[in-house]
Amino acid sequence: MVNLELYRIFKIVADEENLTKASEILHISQPAITKHIKNLENELNVELFKRSKYGMILNENGKKLYLQIKDSIDILSKADLIFNIHKDIKLGVHVNMPNRIYNKGISNFYEKNNNIIINIHRLNATNMFSALEKQEIDLAFSKKYSDELYDTNKIKFIRIGDLQDVFIVNSNSQYLNRKLSKSDLRNITIYTLKKFSSAYQNLVKVLEYKSDDKINIANVDFTGIMELLKCRDIIAVVTKEYIEDQLETNELHLLDLGISLPPAEYGIYYNVNNKFKELNDLIEILKDICKL
Predict the structure, then answer these.
(1) The whole model's pTM is what?
(2) Sequence-separated (6 or more) residues with CB below 8 Å from residue 274
(3) Per residue in 223-258, pLDDT tens?
(4) Which residue, 131, 148, 138, 125, is CA-closest to 266?
């Protein structure tokens, strides 16, 4: 007899490529997930993943199986939701958003809803909006992005509060105790996020770049910026709330330039066609609890 739960677990591990993330979504321990995957491999008499310190990556056998079962598992999951009295919630969270910001809201929701499970999916901006439009997730907790990234007729944003973008360097930086003007900063390559991010847009405005100027800003994802700061003397602009641990340990330092970047809004994105009672309850709790 086919054990469909093993295939569902296999699909989630394949999607996340990470046992920790799969464990959070499935609400079962990592050793239990490993055992289920091993059981499936034993049933099929093949290995399905390349296991390494970087995660769980499908091998050729795994890729073939994934293509065979992906659509069927998705269909069965949707059917289960239709006939299940208690609807689970798929919450998308931007990959860089610290969980301490939204954890209190989720805990508060669980106290009032004993039978609902919130499955958390960490997404970048592009696939977050794609997942919202396709209703693959029910809502997303994120910084506010340019309206150009999504269909504003389908997706709406609810503001909860503000985050602060800041200039940072590592502890050995030559820039740490220097007073830099806007002119100086325009002559130094500043590292920040992609062009549609608030950090980039605000940086361009604050440094007063003109339309015909060559903009001396490098666009790197958050993980890339953190790695660069470990080995290179760079100035970066990131969200302060994302790096509070590194600031507390003096691994990173704020640059006091006498320049303030505008705050960046954060809040909830949702698809206007995908609202139900439990989801509305979660939205209201996140609005009340997750203000910094």
Answers:
(1) 0.66
(2) 135, 138, 139
(3) 999 999 999 999 999 999 999 999 999 999 999 898
(4) 125
